[in-house]
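can u pls check wat happens w/ flavin-adenine dinucleotide
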Amino acid sequence: MTLLDAVVVGSGPNGLAAAVTLARAGLGVRVLEAQPTIGGGARTLPVPELDDDLLFDLCSAVHPMAWASPFFRAFDLRAHGVELVAPEVAYAQPLGGDRAGLAWRDLGRTADGLGADGDAWRDLIGPLAEDWRQMTALALGDKRTVRGMLEGVRGHGGYASETWGAAASLARPGLRFGTAVLEQGGPRWDRRFLTEEARALLTGVAAHAITPLPSYAGAGTALLLAALAHADGGWAVPVGGSQAITDALVRDLEAHGGVVETGRQVDDWRDLPSARAVLLDTTPRTALEILGDRVSAPRRAALGKFRYGNAAAKVDFVLSGPVPWAADDVGRASTVHVGGARAEMVIAEDAVAHGTHPDRPMVLLSDPAVADPGRARGTRRPLWTYAHVPSGSTQDVTEAVTRQIERFAPGFRDVVVGARCIPADQMERHNQNYPGGDISAGAATMWQMVARPSLAPDPYQLAEGVYLCSASTPPGPGVHGMGGWHAARRALLREFDVRHVPGLAPD
Ligand SMILES: Cc1cc2nc3c(=O)[nH]c(=O)nc-3n(C[C@H](O)[C@H](O)[C@H](O)COP(=O)(O)OP(=O)(O)OC[C@H]3O[C@@H](n4cnc5c(N)ncnc54)[C@H](O)[C@@H]3O)c2cc1C
């Protein structure tokens, strides 16, 4: 039997980021993917039951972190042939009638549109947007080591790049970010803004965390994503859909000798070819099933306590034209948070946290053709939405989502040509990393954003030669490849004595 250098289980963005990093260090890498298609949460596929020509993003659709993440900055998606396009309005929050909060790419224009809250928005988000490199370094670091944070500021120079100067450069942005999280994640969150436009605009982004609001995890998510809206790449979508990111990673992997095998479910250690290193782009639960008593008893106990969160139920629509938003300029945004006013979103998220389906659920919507007109075919276009629901929900939420959108876009029903729901309990069929429909692969509580998947000093290494690299590790959910990058770099150092992190830019 040939001994492989490394096997990666799972071809999500983290699995592929790990595989690319290892292959570029000259190792023989094989990726085993259970599904028939590659990419996990970054796949764009036809849905024949809906339309013969259109392509739909199965999971992720909008990618502020794909250009901002230190891994992807080093990899250079553009140079790898991925065109990222950002809409003029990063995200919008319709409030009924002609009212809406709008986050334009341009911070000044956003502030102008927020009237009485313009200065307050500029004061809160402006400095964070200016320091977006430091912000992403902190938010997407390994949450354990100084050097795991520094790579984000200093690029991809390797472990030797650790310097106190770089660490000091994180101090001020870190303090600013931390103070803002405490303010917007706590009971004083209403004090800064006077208008519903500004309050709701930030709350819509906080809701990405699927937690009761306000929460520190929600505030951290909101402030990072809101800052990135005004930074270099905005809330970008890849031309052609999220699959473009996956395809670029796979091309690079194959160019460096790696292979991906689909239809390879791994349930047991015996399903794995023998290899010097195994990296699991899976949940901790799956990892424990595969590894059995290869993981020490204390570590098993700690990982057994990892909590999975509430869920999303997906609804894909085919439309015969753009969404007829009532408020001006909402249609210039690819991403629209359809939840109404701050108080309504608080009620909706609270209901989900208590295990019930809200009448007016929090809906996230992406209309990719706004930024990438090539996604439409003639007048037909795909519309990507999901609603927050309790974990394991079996409900088809098509009608609830339609009703929510119709509130802010009267006539929406008239442009709907077809729709299909993937209820939360079915999400696992497409990707077992989302138990019960938890699209964050682990509840986004403040504790679990830091101590993910447990408080172990090394969150990635589970046993000798075995690493967890999925969104259940730091920094958590999103298409940024950072969990894979952090884990692969540890594996390189410990299993192969490779001290210099390989460059990732195109050869
Ligand atoms: C509906 C939805 C919308 C989202 N929207 C966004 C968004 O707009 N922007 C954004 O940045 N993020 C978004 N996300 C989150 C993002 O997709 C994930 O955080 C990201 O894909 C996580 O990457 P990963 O590599 O850790 O795991 P995943 O992408 O989940 O991939 C894991 C892979 O491992 C495979 N696998 C798991 N277990 C096994 C096994 N035992 N054997 C073999 N293979 C296995 C799975 O089949 C899967 O392909 C969304 C997610 C969902 C579900």
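The CA atoms of residues 86 and 234 lie 6 Å apart.
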